Amino acid sequence: MFLELRHLRSLLAIRETGNLARAAERLHVTQSALSHQIKSLENYFEAPLFLRNSKPLRLTPAGEKLIELARQVLPLVEGAENDLKRVARGELGRLHIAIECHACFEWLAPVLNRYRQQWPQIEVDIRVGVSFEALPALRKGEVDLVISSDPVKSSDLQFAELFDYEALLVMPADHPLTRRKRIQPADLAGETLITYPVNRQRLDVFSRFLQPAGVEPAAVRQSELTSVILLLVASGRGVAVLPDWVLREAEQAGTLATRPLGPRGLKGTLHAAVRRAEFDTAYLQDFIALARGC
Amino acid sequence: MFLELRHLRSLLAIRETGNLARAAERLHVTQSALSHQIKSLENYFEAPLFLRNSKPLRLTPAGEKLIELARQVLPLVEGAENDLKRVARGELGRLHIAIECHACFEWLAPVLNRYRQQWPQIEVDIRVGVSFEALPALRKGEVDLVISSDPVKSSDLQFAELFDYEALLVMPADHPLTRRKRIQPADLAGETLITYPVNRQRLDVFSRFLQPAGVEPAAVRQSELTSVILLLVASGRGVAVLPDWVLREAEQAGTLATRPLGPRGLKGTLHAAVRRAEFDTAYLQDFIALARGC
DNA sequence: TGAGAAACATGAGATTTACTCAACACCGTT
DNA sequence: AACGGTGTTGAGTAAATCTCATGTTTCTCA
User: Fold this and answer.
1) Are the folds of A5-88 and A93-163+269-292 the same?
2) B5-88 belongs to which CATH class?
3) Among partner residues A3, A65, A80, which is closest to B87 by beta-carbon distance?
4) Exposure string (b/e) for B10-20, b if CB count within 10 Å is 16 or more?
5) How much is the average pLDDT of A213-236?
6) Does residue B58 have a pLDDT over 60?
7) A53 CB contact with strand C at below 7 Å
8) pLDDT band at residue A54 using 50, 70 and 90 as cut-offs
9) Residue B206 near residue B198, CB atoms below 8 Å
10) Are A121 and A282 in contact, with CB atoms under 8 Å apart?
11) Are the C-beta atoms of residues A187 and A266 closer than 8 Å to each other?
């Protein structure tokens, strides 16, 4: 392993100009440098690469082999270099997003549709975080952006606020609790609560509302899909607690009613986490801007 | 254009071992060297290639692009290097033969058939020299070996003797001239002479036999193919002068007779000319040996 | 055929590049 | 808090690759 791209570039220039002097000029080196270079190659391979007694300079079979290699390899290298420059300028990249909350998918999907139009060269993907820890995955480079509602201090990660949300109780429009302006934990003691199928710790309604008050709902039912949860609620099978962005359209239809939870509402702020080194990248910033504008 | 194969080899080693220290060991350099190398790459491309806070070391999209390049390029390079080593050892090569005399084809064809079995990796080809000068073509690398009957001194070409031959008059077995033991120029004055369609200067029968004696045959007829010439002679359309190797089999059939020309016979020696630098190559020497043994 | 031009080769010295060494910083363990 | 493992950094050194000056070869044209 001695051959370097420099050699291939020289060889190709010599081949194309048909003489050392012109090739040297093109490569911005002296003719002597090229001569030495070729000699060292011939030395290494123990075979002449050019027929010296011929004008224009002609290749031996060994030389032809190297030219062939150069013709295959150099365009690939140039292509890759261009790609890399574009990566550096943020025109090319990967945006694998991890979401930990199922409901986020509801606002993320339309945002990504618009995003894809603006950044067709960015490879976009979503991973719903059930089986893996989002922040470690971000550190390891498995994903490039994490949607999270609790930012943490970290030297290598950076969080950006997206928007505030409020978790609301959703129930049929004719449900008895619609008479209350605000819901108290005890109000849910007699209800069937429909949730996403994840650990209770990760559901605000338990960790921040029911558990502090020591209240347990009459029953808990689970469903993966937001639309199914809404359907179950609408048909009177139970109540659910969902973020407001999910409910805006559903409420307008008139079949469902929503109420805030607790005296000040169950509020939070969504954040996007990215690796600090990449924070300023154009295509990441643009995703964040789009997510905020929603 | 800054990237070198060295970088790709390093990157691949790092990727495969998952850490700088082990990669350095594999490449027989210090870990520090690798660190510097990567840093200079990241500097050049203005983009990080690795995520530092991860074990095993993980690539950024930019790094992935380079690894992809390495995976494409390095095998090609290695393949070419192997080929070149084989070219140097003479296991791989090209043998384009130029022949100036049509009749040479008769002995060359069977020689090449055997040769191809011994050297399947050598690309063999024959060019009958009508429209080009054989020795300049050899110097320029258009052909690799020239069959010639008159060796010349040259600093860059080397001639090797193959075998002696004698040009003989060939005629029908019942031709009046068969009564002569040897043929004199004047004997051909009344005959139709059948030759290959080339300049008279290049036909021994003219340049070395008839012209010195100032004799012109009654008629001259031309044919490309040795077998056609023999057919014409056998059917009494004329006589021909051909090298002995062509006539050995034909004579045995009994329909043709041959006689030497002039007091000492029209003799010569065939030579193989190659570029001096390649003279010692195994596959060329073996061709010469095969040609002699014929 | 021989003088001159053009083109490649060569050797020595300079420059640049890449490497090693040694000290340091960081992280995760124990 | 100390330690092992790992990557980073800066300075100094070694090696490679260049340039410059000159030599050699080849080709051209009178």
Assistant:
1) no
2) mainly alpha
3) A65
4) bbbbbbebeeb
5) 93
6) yes
7) no
8) low
9) no
10) no
11) no
Asked if the Cβ of residue B53 lies within 7 A of any atom of strand C, the reply is yes
Distance, in Å, from the CA atom of B75 to the CA atom of A4, rounded to the nearest integer, reads 14
Q: Say yes or no for a CB contact (<8 Å) between A275 and B51.
A: yes
CA-CA distance, A169 to A190, in Å (whole number)?
14
Q: Which two tokens stand for residue B34?
A: 């690798």
Q: Which fold has domain B93-163+269-292?
A: D-Maltodextrin-Binding Protein; domain 2 (3.40.190)
B91 by Cβ neighbours in 10 Å (0-12 / 13-18 / 19+) ranks as: middle
Question: Strand C closer than 7 Å to the CB of B6?
Answer: yes
3-class state of residue B87 by DSSP: helix
Instruction: Look up residue B48 and give its two tokens.
Output: 């990080």
Q: Is the pLDDT of residue B252 over 90?
A: no
Give domain B165-266's CATH number out of 2.40.240.20, 3.40.50.720, 1.20.950.20, 3.40.190.10: 3.40.190.10
**Better-scored residue on pLDDT, A110 or B293:** A110
Do the chains contact at B139 and A94, CB–CB below 8 Å?
A: no
Which residues in chain A have their CB less than 8 angstroms from residue B139's CB?
Answer: 51, 53-54
Give B12's contacts in chain A (Cβ within 8 Å): none
CA distances from B7 to A45, B3, B4, B37 (A): 22, 7, 5, 7
Six token digits for residue B128: 């009958």
Please tell me the CATH code under which domain A165-267 is placed: 3.40.190.10
Cα B285 from Cα B54, distance rounded (Å)? 60
Q: Å between A81 CA and C9 C1'? A: 35
**d(C-alpha A97, C-alpha A142), whole Å:** 10
The pair phi, psi for residue A42, each rounded to 5°, is -60, -35
With CA of A21 and C1' of each nucleotide, the nearest comes out as C7
CA atom of A33 to C1′ atom of D20, Å: 11
Residues B81, A3: C-beta atoms closer than 8 Å: yes
Q: What's the pLDDT at A69?
A: 96
Two tokens, residue B173: 């077995």
What is residue B111's predicted lDDT score, i.e. its pLDDT?
Answer: 94
- The structural domains of chain B, with segments of one domain joined by +, span 5-88, 93-163+269-292, 165-266
Find chain A residues with C-beta within 8 A of B136's C-beta: none
Give, in degrees to the nearest 5, the angle at Cα A4 between B16 and B60: 35
A72, A77, A156: residue with CB nearest B53: A156
**Nearest-by-Cβ selection for B69 from A3, A80, A275:** A80
Q: Can you tell me the distance from the alpha carbon of B151 to that of B24, in angstroms, rounded to the nearest whole number?
A: 58
Is there a contact between B57 and A99 (Cβ–Cβ < 8 Å)? no
- For residue B79, give the chain A residue with the closest CA: A69
B54 touches strand C (CB under 7 A): no
Residue A170, pLDDT > 90, answer yes
Q: Which helix (H) or strand (E) holds A102?
A: none
Q: Which candidate from B54, B73, B83 shows the least CB-CB separation from A77?
A: B73
B30 touches strand C (CB under 7 A): yes
Token reading at B251: 């004579």
What is each CA distance from B160 to B45, B167, B288, in whole angstroms?
57, 20, 8
Most A-contacting residue of B77, B125, B274 (CB-CB within 10 A), to test interface: B77
Can you give the pLDDT at residue B14?
A: 94
